[in-house]
Protein backbone atom coordinates (compact mmCIF):
# COMPACT_ATOMS: atom_id res chain seq x y z
CA UNK A 1 0.00 0.00 0.00
CA UNK A 2 2.79 2.44 0.82
CA UNK A 3 4.28 1.74 -2.63
CA UNK A 4 1.01 2.85 -4.20
CA UNK A 5 0.92 5.96 -2.04
CA UNK A 6 4.34 7.09 -3.15
CA UNK A 7 3.66 6.20 -6.79
CA UNK A 8 0.78 8.65 -7.05
CA UNK A 9 1.83 11.25 -4.47
CA UNK A 10 1.65 14.79 -5.64
CA UNK A 11 -0.21 14.07 -8.87
CA UNK A 12 -2.99 16.56 -9.51
CA UNK A 13 -6.02 14.75 -10.89
CA UNK A 14 -9.26 16.42 -12.01
CA UNK A 15 -12.63 14.65 -12.05
CA UNK A 16 -15.46 16.35 -13.93
CA UNK A 17 -18.85 14.70 -13.51
CA UNK A 18 -22.35 16.00 -12.82
CA UNK A 19 -23.01 13.06 -10.48
CA UNK A 20 -22.00 13.94 -6.95
CA UNK A 21 -21.76 10.22 -6.15
CA UNK A 22 -19.30 9.56 -8.98
CA UNK A 23 -17.23 12.65 -8.11
CA UNK A 24 -17.07 11.72 -4.43
CA UNK A 25 -16.25 8.06 -5.18
CA UNK A 26 -13.46 8.94 -7.60
CA UNK A 27 -12.16 11.63 -5.25
CA UNK A 28 -12.00 9.20 -2.31
CA UNK A 29 -10.30 6.47 -4.38
CA UNK A 30 -7.73 8.84 -5.82
CA UNK A 31 -6.99 10.65 -2.57
CA UNK A 32 -6.44 7.32 -0.87
CA UNK A 33 -3.81 6.58 -3.53
CA UNK A 34 -2.05 9.86 -2.73
CA UNK A 35 -3.39 12.12 -5.51
CA UNK A 36 -4.47 15.70 -5.05
CA UNK A 37 -8.01 15.74 -6.49
CA UNK A 38 -9.82 18.66 -8.09
CA UNK A 39 -13.51 18.27 -8.93
CA UNK A 40 -16.09 20.09 -11.01
CA UNK A 41 -19.78 19.60 -11.70
CA UNK A 42 -19.53 20.25 -15.46
CA UNK A 43 -17.19 21.46 -18.16
CA UNK A 44 -18.17 25.09 -17.75
CA UNK A 45 -17.25 25.01 -14.06
CA UNK A 46 -14.06 23.03 -14.82
CA UNK A 47 -12.42 25.41 -17.31
CA UNK A 48 -11.31 28.10 -14.81
CA UNK A 49 -10.06 25.35 -12.46
CA UNK A 50 -8.04 23.78 -15.30
CA UNK A 51 -6.65 27.20 -16.15
CA UNK A 52 -5.70 28.03 -12.57
CA UNK A 53 -4.57 24.63 -11.29
CA UNK A 54 -3.26 22.89 -14.46
CA UNK A 55 -4.07 19.28 -13.47
CA UNK A 56 -1.78 16.43 -14.57
CA UNK A 57 -4.67 14.33 -15.92
CA UNK A 58 -8.42 14.90 -16.36
CA UNK A 59 -11.29 12.41 -16.13
CA UNK A 60 -14.37 13.80 -17.88
CA UNK A 61 -17.92 12.48 -17.90
CA UNK A 62 -19.53 12.73 -21.32
CA UNK A 63 -23.12 13.56 -20.54
CA UNK A 64 -23.23 16.74 -18.44
CA UNK A 65 -25.32 19.92 -18.49
CA UNK A 66 -24.01 23.22 -19.91
CA UNK A 67 -20.77 21.96 -21.45
CA UNK A 68 -20.60 18.20 -22.10
CA UNK A 69 -17.49 16.01 -21.96
CA UNK A 70 -16.80 16.11 -25.70
CA UNK A 71 -16.98 19.92 -25.78
CA UNK A 72 -14.84 20.23 -22.67
CA UNK A 73 -12.23 17.82 -24.05
CA UNK A 74 -12.13 19.69 -27.36
CA UNK A 75 -11.60 23.02 -25.58
CA UNK A 76 -8.75 21.57 -23.52
CA UNK A 77 -7.09 19.87 -26.49
CA UNK A 78 -7.41 22.90 -28.77
CA UNK A 79 -5.59 25.15 -26.31
CA UNK A 80 -1.80 24.90 -26.74
CA UNK A 81 -1.34 25.56 -23.01
CA UNK A 82 -3.35 22.47 -21.98
CA UNK A 83 -3.26 20.10 -24.97
CA UNK A 84 -0.62 17.88 -23.33
CA UNK A 85 -2.88 17.09 -20.36
CA UNK A 86 -4.16 13.51 -20.84
CA UNK A 87 -7.96 13.31 -20.93
CA UNK A 88 -9.87 10.14 -20.06
CA UNK A 89 -13.55 10.10 -20.99
CA UNK A 90 -15.95 8.51 -18.49
CA UNK A 91 -19.31 7.21 -19.64
CA UNK A 92 -21.98 4.64 -19.03
CA UNK A 93 -22.27 4.35 -22.83
CA UNK A 94 -20.03 1.75 -24.40
CA UNK A 95 -20.82 2.17 -28.07
CA UNK A 96 -18.27 2.29 -30.85
CA UNK A 97 -19.58 5.71 -31.91
CA UNK A 98 -19.08 7.13 -28.41
CA UNK A 99 -15.51 5.82 -28.22
CA UNK A 100 -14.73 7.15 -31.69
CA UNK A 101 -16.16 10.57 -30.86
CA UNK A 102 -13.91 10.70 -27.79
CA UNK A 103 -10.87 10.02 -29.97
CA UNK A 104 -11.94 12.67 -32.49
CA UNK A 105 -11.99 15.38 -29.81
CA UNK A 106 -8.57 14.27 -28.55
CA UNK A 107 -9.23 11.99 -25.56
CA UNK A 108 -6.47 9.51 -24.78
CA UNK A 109 -8.73 6.86 -23.27
CA UNK A 110 -12.33 5.91 -22.67
CA UNK A 111 -13.49 4.25 -19.43
CA UNK A 112 -16.92 2.76 -18.99
CA UNK A 113 -18.83 3.34 -15.76
CA UNK A 114 -18.93 1.86 -13.27
CA UNK A 115 -15.16 2.11 -13.02
CA UNK A 116 -12.95 0.60 -10.34
CA UNK A 117 -10.06 2.03 -8.37
CA UNK A 118 -7.73 0.00 -10.58
CA UNK A 119 -9.29 1.43 -13.76
CA UNK A 120 -8.51 4.98 -12.59
CA UNK A 121 -5.02 4.17 -11.32
CA UNK A 122 -4.16 2.16 -14.45
CA UNK A 123 -5.16 5.13 -16.61
CA UNK A 124 -2.89 7.39 -14.55
CA UNK A 125 -0.05 4.89 -14.82
CA UNK A 126 -0.50 4.58 -18.58
CA UNK A 127 -0.72 8.29 -19.37
CA UNK A 128 1.54 9.81 -16.71
CA UNK A 129 3.84 7.43 -14.88
CA UNK A 130 4.80 5.05 -17.71
CA UNK A 131 5.11 7.99 -20.08
CA UNK A 132 7.55 9.72 -17.72
CA UNK A 133 9.62 6.54 -17.46
CA UNK A 134 10.09 6.51 -21.23
CA UNK A 135 11.20 10.15 -21.34
Q: What do these coordinates show?
A:
The protein has 135 residues and is of the alpha/beta class. It contains six helices and five strands; from the N terminus they run H-E-H-E-H-E-H-E-H-E-H. The protein has helices at residues 2-8, 20-32, 43-53, 69-77, 96-104, 117-134, and strands spanning 12-16, 36-40, 57-61, 87-91, 109-112. A five-stranded parallel β-sheet has the order 2-1-3-4-5, with helices on both faces. Helix 5 (96-104) links the parallel strand 4 and strand 5. The longest helix is centred in the last third of the chain and has 18 residues, at 117-134. The radius of gyration is 14 Å and the shape is globular. It starts with a helix and ends with a helix.
Summarize this structure as a short list of keywords or feature phrases.
single chain, 135 residues, alpha/beta, 18% strand
Structural shape: globular
SS element count, helices: 6
H/E element sequence: HEHEHEHEHEH
Instruction: Evaluate the radius of gyration.
Output: 14 Å
Computed structural class: alpha/beta
* Spatial sequence of strands, sheet with the most strands: 2-1-3-4-5
Task: Catalogue the unreliable spans.
Answer: none
Number of strands: 5
- Relative helix content: 40-55%
Strand content: 15-25%
Oligomer classification: single chain
Largest sheet: 5 strands, parallel
Average pLDDT reading: 91
Distance between the termini: 26 Å
Amino acid sequence: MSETLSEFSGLKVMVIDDSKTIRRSAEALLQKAGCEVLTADNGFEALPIISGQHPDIIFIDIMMPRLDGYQTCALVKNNPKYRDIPVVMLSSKDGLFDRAKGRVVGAEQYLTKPFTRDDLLDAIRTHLLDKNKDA
